Amino acid sequence: MPIIQSLQNQPGGHAPSISATGNTNGILWVIGGPQLSAFNAITLAKLYGTNQLATRDALPPMAHFSTQTIANGRVYVGTQASLRVYGLLPKLLASGGNGQTAAVFTALPIPLQVSAATAYSGGAISGATVTFSDRGQNGSFSASSVMTDSQGLASTTYTLSKTAKTVTVTASSPGLAKVTFTETGTPGSPRWVLVQSGNQQNAPVTTMLPLPLVVKVSDSYGNGISGITVNLSAGTFGGTLSASSAVTNLGRASVNYTTSTKAGKATILGTVAGMTSRAQFAETVTAGPAAGIVAISGNGQTAAANTPLASPLVARVNDQYGNPVPGASVSFSDGAAGGAFATNPLTTDSTGTASATYTTPPSPGQVTVNATVAGVATAVNFIVSVQ
Known about the structure:
The chain is mostly beta strands. It is built from no helices and 37 strands. The strands form 11 sheets. Strands 9-17-16-11-13 form a 5-stranded mixed beta sheet, with no helix packed on it. A 5-stranded mixed beta sheet has the order 19-27-26-21-23, with no helix packed on it. Strands 29-37-36-31-33 form a 5-stranded mixed beta sheet, with no helix packed on it.
């Protein structure tokens, strides 16, 4: 009975081989078709295949009944026209400077250093050209190409870009396994307090703005800074903020604003202690629905019959807080007295007023002209004397 079986299909008539370090690290090597494969000798889990990554790694036509040979850490495979040798590449190792953190646009305190060594003995490799690259992350090197010294060492100083982020730096050399460094750039000192979003919104009185007010605190290069307390104030205009201060997360702090009972332009400021820069939001508070109407001018005039009044009859529409309501429809009526209006009904202007031009009726007497607004129970009356 087999102890372990593999579902791997390895065609071909080539005998397998096993390599090990004494009684440990056993590897089963098998040639099957165009591929040399390695399996864990205990579990038969596949560890490696020569054409796993690209067709060019496949073996050329094999010598008949060729068997792989393992010696000195290498695997030798004879083909019909060549001898292929597989083994570990010499490698680069990160020997200094990995895993550092520094402020953006500054040089890391410790140089990035690699050591070039042979795969099996670990002997130093001198004279190897090592290329350092951050793959377009906009950092810079004191030298991007360095030759290893007699101890196999090569180093460079890396300056982070202006963007706060984690960067992978790769060191490579022809014929050697590459190595990577992971370096992190953090934001610099706070420099700007800015409006991120929520500016220039509109809402009626006593209503929450649809979007929160978001303040961004950043360094000189626009990187958001966490943990900064932003103080917010609606000033003398009033209104209610959901909080008088908020702490930044990734540079952003937000609050909600509910408008006051006063229509107009509301200015909300975001400030940080010790900083002159500030965020200024400009929000528009509009009047609520029409709730009342008042006479502004034109009452008590006298004119001859069939004559336009010298001054228009002016009424203003207000909301429940006394704010003028633009865009409201005002209807004027003289109770069928026989006078005429140039335009009726009228729409209130930006100041909430409607101005009616009235021509007196043909008969003398006293006429009452009233002005009404849909949805408002009260009306306003103008008295006109016709001679």
